[in-house]
Recover the amino acids of this structure.
């Protein structure tokens, strides 16, 4: 941190001037007085970097040094904090963050992919070099999710952490339910509205939300999670009929992530579409909103909800980290000294009740075949529903059932058996019914 004779100034080097980077520059300008009062010093954008120096970004960058190579911000003079807002688990973002931390320079990032994938190594690097690594914006945009878990619940023993962590998916699922439209149709709308990327894979296949869950789990349980072992499923398999069945059965479909620590130290973690009871608070987190839920031994269940993306909310989280550093408040990355990653329990060990939807040829004996698959796996059915309204001109019809408590291993056996039936069309959809 620098001092001069007139006032203390904290100088930022911002890498990435897209949605979030420009939001940070704008908010630092528009909310200058309040930020000054809270930081106790002036915050100055001393340097920036992006790919295209010629692009008009709608903010005044005059007098700010431009770096063609973002990695130079790691060691350049006149910079107190590197703010990495490029994105991606590899490439320039990773190289910049590693170089800055190795140089003992504090880093703020919104990059959940980087933290979920390389968090263990980065935490060690920050620790070894006496640098801070802050990442409030990486989970759920404007919601202070990191501070909520790491600082607010520091005294508790958390039993689970999770939530609805992707606004694009929540928007698509909410709109499908409210309008009866199909996934592809609503995805196209989400892209036109700017919620989903042109390549929506990271969002709709669950990876963005899974990155965020990995970060929350690391904070909740004090050590990073082996991200490549986490069970991740997206929402592409959800059809309009599933929304219909879910409503009829008293549920809503949400892309939900949940992590729990098992007694043997392994982490049970999944990000997948789930059914949750429609009378719960989490079921009413709608549209682009996100929510983080925790359950602590001492604090009990809690939920915080808000905007999980966008320039304003995300920039506000980035600047909150800047203010923390200005106040001299930097904590260990995962709230405790660096630890080796925890392994994830295999998916088969999950248990609970399940929803299964199968598109079938509407002819005698089909239900008996499906019931036999459940019987053979030792799964007890709680209810079954079929609607003629869903019957297609080719006499195929969706059929949905819910089970009593069972194991994921048994449901995987059911899925294998059902997939082999001649009467089944397409891929059946299996959703966990999650108690929240
Ligand atoms: N958008 C959101 O709502 C949220 C985003 N985040 C995270 O924030 C980060 C930034 O996201 P967002 O602002 O949306 O991303 P954008 O795609 O809008 O912006 C990325 C920026 O990085 C710059 N960039 C790309 N490659 C390089 C490079 N090699 N060297 C220097 N600059 C480069 C781009 O330059 P140029 O403009 O010249 O192309 C652009 O300015 C990501 O980690 C994202 O996951 C987190 C929460 C919410
Ligand atoms: N693409 C994310 C926002 C960035 O984390 C979402 O839709 O929630």
């Amino acid at each position: 941190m620098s001092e001069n004779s007139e006032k203390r100034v904290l100088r930022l080097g911002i890498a990435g001037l897209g949605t979030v980077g420009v939001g940070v520059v704008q908010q630092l300008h528009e909310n200058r007085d309040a930020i000054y009062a809270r930081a106790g010093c002036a915050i100055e954008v001393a340097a920036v970097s992006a790919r295209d120096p010629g692009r008009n970004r709608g903010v005044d960058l005059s007098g700010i040094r431009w770096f063609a190579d973002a990695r130079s911000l790691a060691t350049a003079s006149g910079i107190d904090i590197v703010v990495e807002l490029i994105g991606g688990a590899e490439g320039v973002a990773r190289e910049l963050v590693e170089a800055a931390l190795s140089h003992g320079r504090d880093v703020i990032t919104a990059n959940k992919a980087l933290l979920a994938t390389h968090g263990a190594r980065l935490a060690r690097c920050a620790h070894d070099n006496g640098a801070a690594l802050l990442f409030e914006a990486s989970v759920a945009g404007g919601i202070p999710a990191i501070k909520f878990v790491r600082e607010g619940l520091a005294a508790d023993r958390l039993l689970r952490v999770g939530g609805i962590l992707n606004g694009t998916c929540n928007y698509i699922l909410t709109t499908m339910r409210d309008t009866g439209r199909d996934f592809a149709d609503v995805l196209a709308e989400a892209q036109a509205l700017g919620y989903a990327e042109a390549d929506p894979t990271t969002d709709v296949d669950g990876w963005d939300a899974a990155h965020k869950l990995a970060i929350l789990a690391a904070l909740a349980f004090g050590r990073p999670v082996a991200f490549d072992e986490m069970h991740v499923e997206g929402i592409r398999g959800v059809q309009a009929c599933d929304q219909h069945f879910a409503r009829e059965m008293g549920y809503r479909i949400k892309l939900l992530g949940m992590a729990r620590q098992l007694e043997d130290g392994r982490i049970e973690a999944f990000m997948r579409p789930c059914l949750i009871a429609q009378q719960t608070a989490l079921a009413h987190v709608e549209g682009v909103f996100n929510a983080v839920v925790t359950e602590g031994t001492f604090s009990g269940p809690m939920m915080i909800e808000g905007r999980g993306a966008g320039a304003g909310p995300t920039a506000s989280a980035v600047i909150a980290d800047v203010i923390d550093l200005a106040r001299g408040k930097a904590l260990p990355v995962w709230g405790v000294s660096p630890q080796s990653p925890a392994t994830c329990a295999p998916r088969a060990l999950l248990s609970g009740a399940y929803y299964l939807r199968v598109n079938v040829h509407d002819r005698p004996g089909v239900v008996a075949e499906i019931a036999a698959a459940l019987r053979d796996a030792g799964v007890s059915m709680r209810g079954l529903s079929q609607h003629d309204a869903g019957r297609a001109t080719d006499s195929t019809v969706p059929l949905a059932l819910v089970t009593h408590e069972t194991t994921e291993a048994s449901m995987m056996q059911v899925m294998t058996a059902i997939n082999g039936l001649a009467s089944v069309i397409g891929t059946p959809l299996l959703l966990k019914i999650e108690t929240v």
